[in-house]
Design goal:
The structure is a homotetramer. Chain A is about 20% helix and about 40% strand. With about 150 residues, chain A is of the alpha+beta class. The first copy, chain A, has one domain: Hotdog Thioesterase (Thiol Ester Dehydrase, Chain A, Roll). In chain A, β4 and β5 form a beta hairpin. At the A-B interface, α1, α2, α3 and β3 of A face α1, α2, α3 and β3 of B.
Chain lengths: ~150, ~150, ~150, ~150
């Protein structure tokens, strides 16, 4: 339903990969940047004892973390050069306990705007044989701003 | 506005402190459990390089993590013995970048129910001289269930 | 991604149409029940001067009203006989002003549970020539309960 | 916690009352504008058969409608002259069925910004003797823009 999937910055993937490298929380959680396409970004996370809540499931906050970054970078993939993104707000519904060995957040842009974008993200849990189930889903609003250091 | 601030389980604080100790993500982030009162739980987090997003602010996912745990435990503080809590959904609005040295999530129960509770949480950022500002605020729904291992 | 699209109550459509007839707000707004399928319900709304906010767009509250009813009935379409539904919470993102002559909310079940279902709803705006655009999108939690009057 | 409760436009109340008068949905629902103060706006609604869902409670969409307008006008009360407001997104949690004869939405600004404000709104239900209970609560993001017709 999104028509604005033409990247305004041809270097969007390099910009996103460099920025992800500076998101120290991603390294702390063990999250990895996957596919980076115009309007769509994936982040994977292997379950580990460091990420659990009290029952041994991956904590909701870890799911939000990867879905938020995937959504923000999906928005950034369609923004002009010299922009940065910041979460305004997010909402996540948790549909199943995150008991899976591997999780993947897929962030997508629903509407790309000049100063605000609306994003959706699904968090999938991967089971044996590669089957996946929908563990959680997010809607969020992302603010798009000129970078403080942008030479413009 | 909440009338149900009488704990149904006199041992609620011990239950919550023991459960928090099993939330490995809290240790991974460096979060500490603070006040535990009927219907109100606080969790503190010192900013650290391990928690940042790309600009050096504390990542939204870390704010959600402590606010979600504080809200869940606030709900658990009013639940009968032998119950556990699980996030159904949460929504957080981010009002300022989390540039502060110390953050505190204060989770409160707005309505305590038998199977679902509605919670609110504020994340405060502490500045020099002890002043604080509202960095983010959350509304969430918490499911309350008999523990799998509850002997009842 | 939803597997539970088999209706538990073969009379689900009649139940939903009867219940919609008792939702007086739908008549007050001029909303009409459209397609009713297992896990998917549509509600249409013609723009009218009675529904506007201050600029002449359809008010956000009218969009939420039809999306909430479509989501609740989508959840009810998969529930056993003798159940009723109630919104626990909802979140809507508004992507474009609702300047269209006709709007349609499409409610879908993302996860159907025994006591709680997670739903998504899109509100489409219809333009000339039948093209549609995504005006708003909702995520919600629906509670499923035995009807007070259910003879079971 | 909000410091920005000084109105930037001394005529804020007249602006809001004039704008409310153009929100036709408010008249359709029977909603009335109450207190208008810097950063806080109240809207009341008498329960009526025209507003119900299938069980005779006031429909969630009507609660959202008054809370959304109260929040938007609370944001507008702190905006400069010549601005208008538009909902970006909202989230409401429903805590009790709206079985009350009278409802009141109280919208408050949590953070007032130049282009975006964060608002909270409570919907209270009034019982006999003037007691009230919290029926629902909202968090929302409001966009602030120069009016199309603003002579600036």
């Amino acid at each position: 339903m999104t028509k604005s999937t033409q990247p305004a910055n041809p270097d969007f993937e390099a910009v996103i990969r460099e920025s992800f490298g500076r998101q120290n929380l991603m390294a702390t959680l063990g999250a990895r940047l996957g596919q980076v396409a115009p309007g769509l970004v994936e982040i994977s996370l292997d379950a580990s004892p460091a990420l659990t809540q009290q029952n041994g499931f991956v904590h909701a906050g870890a799911l939000v973390s990867i879905a938020d970054s995937a959504s923000g970078y999906a928005a950034l993939s369609l923004a002009p050069a010299g922009c940065e993104v910041l979460a305004v707000e997010l909402k996540m519904s948790f549909m199943r306990p995150a008991i899976h060995a591997r999780l993947k957040a897929i962030g997508r842009v629903l509407r790309s705007g000049r100063t605000l974008s609306t994003c959706a993200a699904d968090v999938l849990g991967f089971e044996r044989e590669g089957d996946s189930v929908l563990v959680a889903t997010m809607l969020s609003t992302v603010s798009i701003r000129r970078s403080a250091g942008a030479g413009v």
